Amino acid sequence: MALIRRTFLVSFLCFLLVSHSALCSSSSGSELRGAGATFPQPFYETLFSIYQRQNNIKVHYEGTGSGEGLRQLVSKTVDFAGTDKIMQQNTSEAGSGEVLNIPTCVGAVAVVYNVPGDPGLRFTPDIVADIFFGRIKRWNDPRIAAVNRHAALPEIPIAVIYRMDASGTTFIFSEYLARTSKEWNDRIGKGTSLTWPTGQGAKGNPGVAGLVRQIPGAVGYVELVYAIGNKMTFGFLQNRSGRFIAPSVKSVTAAASIDLSARNDYSLTDTMVADGYPISGFTWITLYREQNYARRSRETAENLVNLLAFVIHDGQKQAPLLHYAPLPKSVRRSANRLLGMVTHSGIPVYKNKK
Amino acid sequence: MAHNHIEVKLRRFRIGTRLSIGFALIVAFMITLVILGIASMNRINDRLESLATKTTVKIWYATMIQDSVHVIDNAILNMIVARDEKITMMEYVRVMTARKTYEGAIETIAKLEYTDYGRDILQRMQQGLGESRRENGKAIELARGGQYRKAAGIFLQTSRTTGASVRQVCSELVNYEKEEGNASYLAAAKTYRGTSLVFVVMGVIVLAIASAAAVLLTRSITAPLKQGVHVANRLGSGDLSVEIDGSGTDETGRLLKAMKEMAEKLKKLSEVEHQLVQSQKLETVGRLAGGIAHDFNNLLSIILGNTQLMKMQNPKAEKVADRCTVIESAVMRASDFIKQLLAFSRRQILEFRPVRIDKMVREFEKMMRRMLHENIEMRIATHSSFASVKIDTAQINQVILNLVVNAREAMPDGGRLTIETDLVVIDRDFCSLHPGAKAGTYVVLSVSDTGTGMSRHVIENIFEPFFTTKESGTGLGLSVVYGIIRQHGGFIDVVSEPDRGTCFSVYLPYTSEGIAVAPSSTGEGLVKGTGEVVLVVEDDKELRETVSDLLRLLGYSVHTASDGEEGVRIFTERCGEIDLVLLDAIMPKKSGFEAYGEMNAIRPEVPSIFVTGYNTVHGGNSNGDTNGTSVIQKPYSIELLSRRIREMLDQKNKETPVPVLSVNMKEA
Ligand SMILES: Nc1ncnc2c1ncn2[C@@H]1O[C@H](COP(=O)(O)OP(=O)(O)O)[C@@H](O)[C@H]1O
Ligand SMILES: [Mg+2]
Questions:
Q1: Which of B161, B191, B221 is the last residue of a domain?
Q2: B270 falls within a domain
Q3: Is the CB of A229 less than 8 angstroms away from the CB of B91?
Q4: B465 contacts B289 by C-beta, under 8 angstroms
């Protein structure tokens, strides 16, 4: 009986919550909702709180992971989705209209680990692949030792932590592995959610960071801000040029400083740039080009476009504070151009074009 | 006893098979033990492992929540204290991470928690966390807006209330999980102890079974071997009565069986030996008795002769005649007694004639029936139909009589007496068990009764003269039977069981000779002479005179000689005169046979009559060469003497005397 009553109570509460949020999104124009990638979440939350203070427009952003964010966008629960992977136009999910992917900043996926003594370790791409394959089982493995001559490596087992939710971070990380390891490419491939050969899952960048922080011997991958924010140690990764590079605003900016017009996927992993960090990636905000859907007001559309304009222009200077790299100028320009394409009932929404 | 049973059963298999089975069993036991051990260990391990994982995971996650709450407090405090935008942002990341951490932790614990109390704590914690999140959210929002003082106000206000309560619930959870873990660990340890006890018990049982099997197996091998050694030792020391169990079919069983057979053969051998000794003993006794009997017969002859003389010389004195008749019958009884002794000692001249034994038994039947009381049923079954044996009818009748008398005496309360005849062929095997038997064809005459039977001891002694178990017994009946049958070249077999009865089987050699016509018996009374001259050669002076007187009374003229030499001399001197010679068989200087030989050389046509107490010459026939000679047994009656003399004289007159003498001198 107690159980039934409890489940009833819970579902009732849920109902209240959902109806409340639905009410909020549709009635009040002074509020915007977003969901998705946890990768840029600190950046977004900082910008959104600044934006709210300046414009008195409340922006909710829920770090649900890129996959869930896009799903919520398609189901029209949110006004925009944060994603680390461009939403492909040809996916059936986007059937209700053309979507636009606005790049917001560049981030780095840091390989974090919890090794007693916090040694700064170097990793070659194949070592990373084999750790995540489960083949390298201990921190004092000769292969790790070979590239880390001076580090004191303890003889403790390696516990792999991965993202269990559909995640753009995972996409960037697996894209890097698939590019550097043929075997990874053949057996595991790249994607937002993968079948991991070994390890334990956690939700969101904070989840992975939390688990790695708690489990001695653990290794995982999180956006750089989580690594630094949680005072975690992260590895130097060998890039194409053979150099071991630590993730930083500088190395990420270097990786992003390429001519992107040649590539349509904006991919930065396994960069050719000599001092570029090899696991860097753009992160995006995805929205519908035509904003007049689900009885959305023009005002809401305007607010959303204004918010995004703030993100790609004024907000960019906040990025380095949170260890993200700001958008390269060319990217910022094309992002601006994309914003200009947003319409409400076919009429462009973006006014103060730069 | 069940033990022995199993052992006997086991011994149906060979030792090799038994050993293999034993080893296989032990290996199987061990494998079972190992499997059981591994299985129970695995079970325990799994239990402990899952328990340990669950408990540690829960405790760990509970600690994680505690830690996260602490991190959040710490981060907010940092924001407030540092009053720096960048630090605020980074600390916010920490808050986010910590929130995610405790969310995940709660989720995980909720999955593992199954006690109501645990769920209750979790729910309270979730509530507390939600509350503190809201409160903290306000403080963080203010800090991010740069309103650090306000933020500090809210934070310090709430951290004392919500934060404290969350921390308290957290530690409650940790303690509860620890307690829970301990309890389940204890439970697991208990099952572990239980399982290990079961394991130990199983081990002990398996060990017991294995060792029992081993003991049984070993015993099934060593016990018969021990028995074998024991048997061999006993046999070696000459004890044949040892019991041997040769029931097993394995190697030792076969060994014991062979030993048993050997022991049986040895037993038979010793029996045979015993019988041989027995018969030799009887032989000696017989000789002794024979010697006595000879002198005895002479004495009886004198008594009888004189008594008869007395009767003849005093025909008027009736009283004397009566007395004489009494003496005569007494002497005849004594003579019968002596005859029996002689028959036993084989010192008797027998008259062998081929006879159909069936016919003989049938003829004797009436006589036997008269001897038996009504309470004894007699049955005669003759199977030998036309088979004949060369026997002295009178003697064999005596044998039957003695056996029938014994049977009667063994059945004082009645019973059944069976007389059977049969024709059997006896082989070497049979002979080896019956000393004195020779292979060949025999006619068996058996007399069986349903009487008292005999013990082993009695059976061993029955043929000994004077052995008797009866108050008024003579102990001569069977010894006579023995003697007679030996003289016939046969043997006796006795089978007897106390309280069941006895069967005496007399084996007489079969003969293929034709049946002779029984001699016509001459009528009773004296047959007088007509002045024929008789030469009496007798070393015993008194007997010589008695015989001479008797012969003269019968109408013969008599010459006498005191020994063989003298006899021959007189015979030579009065050559043409003498019509018949009466010879004592045994005399000093020259025996009757020697004398006869010389006389026969001079005048073969003169018939001779041997008078003998016993006959050392004859083992067998004396009837074949009776031409010109005859034998009379001492003590003889005057009737017999007169008849015999007359017969001889009449025969001589009828036939052309053919001087054949092959009177069996071979043994002399
Ligand atoms: N048919 C029989 N049944 C039982 N015992 C017998 C039989 N025949 C002989 N015996 C035993 O043998 C012994 C010797 O027998 P025997 O020589 O005839 O002497 P007697 O008959 O005078 O005792 C007997 O005393 C008796 O113990
Ligand atoms: Mg008797």
A1: B191
A2: no
A3: yes
A4: yes
Domain-embedded: residue B7: no
B239-246's contacts with Cβ under 8 Å and 24+ in sequence apart are B240/B266, B240/B267, B240/B270
Average pLDDT over residues B634-650: 80
ipTM for the whole complex: 0.71
pLDDT (mean) for A290-295:
86
Q: Report how far ligand 1's centroid is from the alpha carbon of B633 (Å).
A: 28
The answer to whether A206 contacts chain B (CB < 8 Å) is yes
Residue A122 has pLDDT above 90, yes or no: yes
Collect contacts of B273-278 with beta carbons under 8 A, ≥24 apart: B274/B460, B275/B434, B275/B435, B275/B436, B276/B435, B278/B460, B278/B463, B278/B464
Cα separation, A252 vs A205, in Å, equals 18
Residues B567 and B464 in one domain: no
pLDDT over 70 at B139, yes or no: yes
Highest mean pLDDT among A75-79, A174-178, B199-203: A174-178
Banded pLDDT at A113 (limits 50, 70, 90): very high
CA-proximal residue: ligand 1, atom 18 (nearest): B477
Residue B140 has pLDDT above 70, yes or no: yes
CA of A35 to the centre of ligand 2 (A): 138
Rounded distance, CA B257 to CA B432, Å?
A: 22
Among B612, B529, B550, B11, which residue's Cα sits nearest to residue B350?
B612
Ligand lying nearest the CA atom of residue B481: 1
pTM of the model: 0.48
Among B191, B206, B221, give the residue marking a domain's end. B191
Closest residue of A to B61, CA-based? A214
Locus of tokens 């020994």: B563
Q: Is there an atom of ligand 1 within 6 Å of B449 CB?
A: yes
Best B78, B87, B91, B96 residue to mutate vs chain A (most A CBs within 10 Å)? B96
Residues 215-234 of A with CB under 8 A from B: 225-226, 228-230
pLDDT digits (tens, 9 = 90+) for A60-98: 999 888 889 989 998 888 999 999 888 776 544 445 678
A110, A224 Cβ separation under 8 angstroms? yes
Nearest to B516, CA basis, from B420, B634, B418, B623:
B623
Q: Is B500 in the pocket of ligand 1 (CB under 6 A)?
A: no
Q: Are B362 and B446 found together in one domain?
A: yes
A203 contacts in B (CB within 8 Å)?
100, 103-104
Q: Is there an atom of ligand 1 within 6 Å of B180 CB?
A: no
Q: Inform me whether the pLDDT recorded for B169 exceeds 50.
A: yes
Reference A87, options A285, A268, A259; nearest CA is A285
Same domain, B184 and B326: no
pLDDT single digits (tens) A316-347: 998 998 889 999 998 898 899 989 999 998 88
pLDDT at position B586 over 60 = yes
